[in-house]
Amino acid sequence: MANLYTDNPELRFHLQNPMMKRICELKERGYADKDIYDYAPRDFEDAIDSYDKVLEIVGQVASDVIEPNAEAVDIEGAHCANGRVTYAQGTQVNLDAMIKAGLNGVTMPRRFGGLNLPVTPYIIASEIVSIADASFDNIWSLQDCIETLYAFGNDEQREKYIPRVCAGETMSMDLTEPDAGSDLQRVQLKATFDEENNCWRLNGVKRFITNGDSDIHLVLARSEEGTTDGRGLSMFIYDKQDGGVDVRRIEQKMGIHGSPTCELVFKNAKCELCGERRLGLIKYVMSLMNGARLGIASQSVGISQKAYTEALAYAKDRKQFGKAIIDMPPVYDMLATIKAKIDAGRSLLYQTSRYVDIYKALESIAMTRPLTPEERKEAKQYSRLADAFTPLAKGMNSEYANQNTYDCIQVHGGSGFMMEYACQRLYRDARITSIYEGTTQLQVVAAIRYVTNGTYATILRELEQEPVHESVKPLMDRVVKMTDKLDAVVARTKELTDALAAPDAPVDAQDVLDLLSRHLYEIAAVTVMSCLLVRDASAAPELFATSAQVYVNLAESEVAKHASFVENFRPEQLAAYRR
Amino acid sequence: MSLKIVVLAKQVPDTRNVGKDAMKEDGTINRAALPAIFNPEDLNALEQALKLKDAFPGSTVSLLTMGPGRAAEILREGLYRGVDQGFLLTDRAFAGADTLATSYALATAIRKIGDFDIIIGGRQAIDGDTAQVGPQVAEKLGLPQVTYAEEILNLDKKIRTITILRHIDGGVETVEAPLPLVVTVNGSAAPCRPRNAKLVMKYKRALGAQEKAALMQNGAELPYADLYETRPYLNLTEWSAADVDADLDQCGLNGSPTKVKTVMNISFQAKENKSLTGSDNDVEELVVELLSNHTIG
Fold first, then answer.
1. Do residues B17 and B37 make contact, with C-beta atoms less than 8 angstroms apart?
2. I want to staple A73 with a disulfide (CB 3.0 to 4.6 A). Which of A88, B22, B252, B277 is the partner?
3. Is the CB of B202 less than 8 angstroms away from the CB of A97?
4. B191: which chain A residues are within 8 Å (Cβ-Cβ)?
5. Tens digits of residue pLDDT in B207-247
6. What does pTM read for this prediction?
């Protein structure tokens, strides 16, 4: 029987990464739950075995229920009437199956009814769901919002909301407004304190809210009258049971039709403050966003995986000039490149999720006892690594999802342009991934400081020193050269911008850096991905040896291209770009 | 009112994806070449049972299967989906059973479970395709039966009746029957729910005695051995012929009048349905027809 987890052995490989030992120890707090809950693991091996079995369930539901529904969900889409959203029929069936399978509140502690899984297996689950239907992943994986409520809400709020999410209630994060998209500091939705009823009230409009008719909302709103920037914004919890929020309309979109994108009208809606006032954007949304970005990265890899599966099957089946097209170099070049980008993107995705796992587990421990100095250091180190890697994982995987679905259609030829093949849906679904939860351009903004301050280069140098199998040493040597190039272009950029530091410089140094950023980002990203994939190929050559070769070839050419741009760029050329 | 439901399930070779080596030279099934699975229509039956449990809190679902030690997998699959307890009827004396001996053995075990309201199984197993076991169990227990069920529509707690949508030729019919009874369920009924994550983690180490013995062969230590003492539900119940007070003459090969004489390749041809009365004439006509086309004989 098909199972989207076991059919993709690369996923199990990432579950079994050596870092998981430390992650499980922290997440399971020394396996303290084992005598309290009958489903808690007793030790590391038991924990990994349990995660593996949970992922098998995800794979089964994805194969048996979600994937067969995907086409009908895309055609039907969600509906909106009388201020409420109804999901496509297949979406509702998917949700029911996930509830029966107990796959909600996946990362939440057991005392709230959660499964207490680390982020990494949760992200693997999100990838599996996305292979089956990316639009459904939007709804299901919004359960991730509960992480923010768990981290910053009070005990009463945790007791009230987390068990409900574990039982299958859905969530949304209501951030965007008509005039506040990428620039969330402009949020206007008004929060006022209702002295009479001793609660907060929300008034205003939110736009582009994914799953906006959910049961439990996290809402960014302006609580501080007279403020105009991010420091006047707070985070609120809106419970649909209280009423006061209507869906005015849902968007007609290019893709992810199963996921309703809502315009919400808040009419004096009762809500609760989550965390402290004024920290809504600067602290809580940043946390929310980092989680969501990891989710979009896994969604992107899932779409890419499906694109590869579809393209591969078609290429094996389709015959032209008397042979299967898969035997033709221009076709297998495309297929090998898609697979290499998936494997490299996955390595980056799960390396990032492991970094997130360690610091989040430590943060969670810090709620119950003070961390030791070593633990504090560890939390800080991994939090920084997670911050550095998340924009790489989101930006690169979402761009790759677009490229891979484009190539998937290309492999299909004329048939790929027709609506009867799944590849057109994948192409449409992929398009949003490089836009929502921060465009690729904003991922570059988030990542660039780690390029220029040498964070990526430092990690690369460390990883390159670790022993690898003889067979992949030549590849690792090439990665070292790419890292040298990264250092060189960063130095070159610094020279350029330093020279423009004078107040009377003809060109603004920041503008030059911003223009070159994408190129620097790409060099860093493909080098990091090459390094991680070569290490994976060292550990599991049967899974990754060919992809590592293909990817290093690709990455080298990308590094050369972008390095050439940076090296040849002159500040006076900026004028030619400016409109 | 809480209900006591017994689900009958069989571990079968997966005959849906047969390769060239699915049959042995002698025409019997090559079990080694086919993965063992939960008989698909028994999963449909399990779903109906679990739905009743959802609708009537406090109800219990027991899963009964007969087979070798490895059939304990069926019990785990049930527990992963919400079954409360499982029983594996396993004994060399049960081996080689045809539908008569199978239904006898199952009936004895059901009597031992006792105090049941509904016994529910799949219409038929994909390895034998007889659809006889459910009805024979009903006969042996002296219970009414509703076959070809699509959905249990209602259960009236006060007057102890059940309303069932039944698939018949060219349509459906709704029937009402008293409890207790036997129901057999079609493959077109609602699919079974997926395994539940918490239940899988809870029961993943549940083992039958034979499985434990196999793991401890050559003096190997049973993994997490202490758990089987502190968590009794991890020890899956196995019943022998003696445990269910079975008459050995009616069990297994001894109790099976069916003998395989020859195995032939036949292809079924699509035919119209035929309605027969219960008259001797019609029965004789049917027997003659079945003999002549080698369906029986």
1. no
2. A88
3. no
4. 64
5. 999 999 999 998 899 999 999 999 999 999 999 999 999 99
6. 0.94
* ipTM for this prediction: 0.94
Q: Which CATH number fits domain A9-166+282-434: 3.80.10.10, 1.20.1530.20, 1.20.140.10, 3.30.460.20?
A: 1.20.140.10
* CB-based contact B195 A60, cutoff 8 Å: yes
d(CA B89, CA B290): 33
CB contacts, 8 Å: B202 with chain A:
38-39
C-alpha distance from B200 to closest chain A C-alpha (Å): 7
Residue B265: CB atoms within 10 A of its CB come to 6
CA distance A211 to chain B (A): 25
Condensed to tens digits (0 to 9), the pLDDT of residues A347-405 reads 999 999 999 999 999 999 999 999 999 999 999 999 999 999 999 999 999 999 999 99
Angle between helices A509-539 and A373-412 (to 10 degrees): 90
Q: Is domain A453-577 in CATH 2.60.120.620, yes or no?
A: no
Contact A102 B202 (CB under 8 A): no
- Topology at the third CATH level for domain A171-279: Butyryl-CoA Dehydrogenase, subunit A; domain 2 (2.40.110)
Q: Where are the beta strands (DSSP E) in A92-239?
A: 171-174, 190-194, 199-210, 216-222, 233-239
Q: Which of A33, A57, A106, A128 to mutate to test the interface with B (most CBs of B within 10 A)?
A: A57
The pLDDT, as a whole number, for residue B268 is 64
